[in-house]
Amino acid sequence: xxxxxxxxxxxxxxxxxxTILPSPHQVLTAADxxxxxxxxxxxxxxxxxxRGAGWSHLATSILRCxxxxxxxxxxGLILGLGLGLSRWxxxxxxxxxxxxxxxPLFAWLPLLAVWFGLxxxxxxxxxxxxxxxxxxxxxxDSVARVPIGQIETARMLGTPRSRLWRRVYLPSALxxxxxxxxxxxxxxxxxxxxxxxxxxxxxxGAMMTAGRESNQTDRIIVxxxxxxxxxxxxxxxxxxxxxxxxxxxxx
Amino acid sequence: MTKLGLLVAxxxxxxxxxxxxxxxIDLEVSAGRTMALLGPSGCGKSTLLRVMxxxxxxxxxxxxxxxxxxxxxxxxxxxVAQSGTLFPWLTVRQxxxxxxxxxxxxxxxxxxxxxxxxTGLSDFADALPRQLSGxxxxxxxxxxxxxxxxxxxxxxxxxxxxxxxxxxxxxxWVRGLLAERPTSTVLVTHDVDEALLLGDQLGxxxxxxxSVVSLRDIAFGAERGRHTLTDPAFVSLKADVLDEVLGAA
Lengths: 251, 249
Fold this sequence. Notes:
The complex is a heterodimer of chains A (251) and B (249). Chain A contains 10 helices and no strands. Chain A has helices spanning 2-12, 24-36, 54-85, 87-101, 108-116, 120-144, 148-157, 164-195, 204-213, 217-243. Chain B has 249 residues and is α/β, with parallel strands linked by helices. Chain B is built from 7 helices and 10 strands. Chain B has a 6-stranded mixed sheet, sandwiched between helices. Chain B has a 4-stranded antiparallel sheet with strand order 2-1-4-5, with helices on one face. In chain B, helix 2 (92-102) packs parallel to helix 4. The chains are: A mainly alpha (251), B alpha/beta (249).
């Protein structure tokens, strides 16, 4: 609330030119137009539409992020379990994955651009890479830290070695894995805007890029709010969904 | 092959690197009897129990249960440790049913229900381990192991973390439980009262590396409980045993 008042005052006192710093009311109007305005009847290719395009852009961005994140989760869990549970996999892939993990995320961008062009394919792969490492690290570390007593108990009670990962390692490590999933989801969502910088006319990121090119700061700020709200909502949903599986670890 | 739970250990030796821990252990636990093992702190009692459970390999000698050599953990040898062995993410009911379910045995629900009654945990069937008191947790851990109906029960200071009153109640409860379902049991403890209340036989171990110093029968009859603690014969036996234990240290 205080921030809102400060924003309004900064606008009124014209601390910055009004094209750079629009008023809260202007941003709200822009958001209203984006989501509830009448869309144009015939769309031309290569144009980023704004009026009435909000819902479709939002759905596109969520889908783009969700697909890459889901693949990263599956690959990350398998890789993490392998690295954490198998000496053989850890020796074979451990140094390789650690080296790859040290590459700054956006350092992949030039390479992806050369290989696939600056388009949504490169963007999707970038989201995937960003979302992958938190899952891998959380899974590897947490399964390696499962107390030996739990493994011994399961073996004593009749769990064969081949089933230990499902009966003990995964449930025991789940609270930390969930933390990894949350980090990964937020990271994936923040990379969406980079993935939509060019090569696409749909998505919230594309709208923000168009807003920057046409100096419509109110539209950029609408995008910022959408990213914040959706990111927060996604994290809350993930927490809600995983809560019952990790209820036991609450202190 | 009948499963009686006859445990025979002959000349068992075990070292951790250069540190010898077990030095030629010879023991025999008859079917349905309870062997209490007392020894000074750090003498290798727990290692011996872990060898019997199949958690630790041994360097020399033999350990057999009903003639079968011990070479890895098995549902036929149930072990309960001081820190408890419950899975924190499973409810009491799921923990108790874990073993039979893993082995695909039929009638799991009936077995679990029965054990929850025996352990007095029926009202806590859907509680998580962290919601239980220390005594309840250990009762649940014992029920978890008994669900597999193991012929041999291995108890590694199972009540060491409990307060004195709860421990005494647990002694009486275990005594009743083992009378109802005769199971060969090896109890490792440093508590002389516990050893004398629960054991049919008492084995004294030397300081590390452990070997069996003496074996004796404990003849107090089946009805043992809080009243036994003040029985003059018990007090006198306890004094003898304490002298021997402290001598062994």
